[in-house]
Give the backbone structure.
Amino acid sequence: MLVQRDGSEGEVVPLGDAPMTIGRWQGDLRFPADEFLGGLHARVDPLANGVRVADLGTRNGVYLRITRPEVVYPGDRFLLGHHLLRLENIPPAGREQEPGPGGARGFGTPLQPAWGRLVLLGPGGVDAETHYLRHPQVVFGRELGDIVFPADPFVSWQHAQLSMELRGDGMSVVLTDLRSANGTYLRTREDVMLQPGDMFRVGDQIFRVRMH
């Protein structure tokens, strides 16, 4: 089933016993006006208790609406409303430099060390903004949070959070949706198994799995 941007139900697309492909110019289900879809973008395989969705090597991938806290890694991308973010490690330029000649430390504003950074991606994959993450928990929202998107009506007042936890010599980062109205979508790294009620996005098209 297609879902409208406001969350209401749209067209019902029956899925038979054979796989269904989705694309802009090719496939069983086509959306020629969607400039974010690949020519042949994704494949949906019907299974006994759900469906499997596979990205067909596209630039923009497949995004899954998360229903529980998900561990995320550097390079992962997630979508809040209209805002697409990429999690990254701290680059060399974001770390304190070694003391200079005579042992002098570089002068600057006192800051808590960052454990990661987020890059806001603009159209065409442009790095639009960078946010350094300095606290163990970072909240996103339209009105309330550490990083806010006040002009995006599809972001809830408090939408999602990233949490960092140190574990021995490493750390774990978890993305959680805060019961937002329009959900938080994480780009898949591989084929995903979906159950009834699950939602996924390809380009500007949002689908909900419904079983009869």
Q: What stands out?
A: The mean pLDDT is 91.
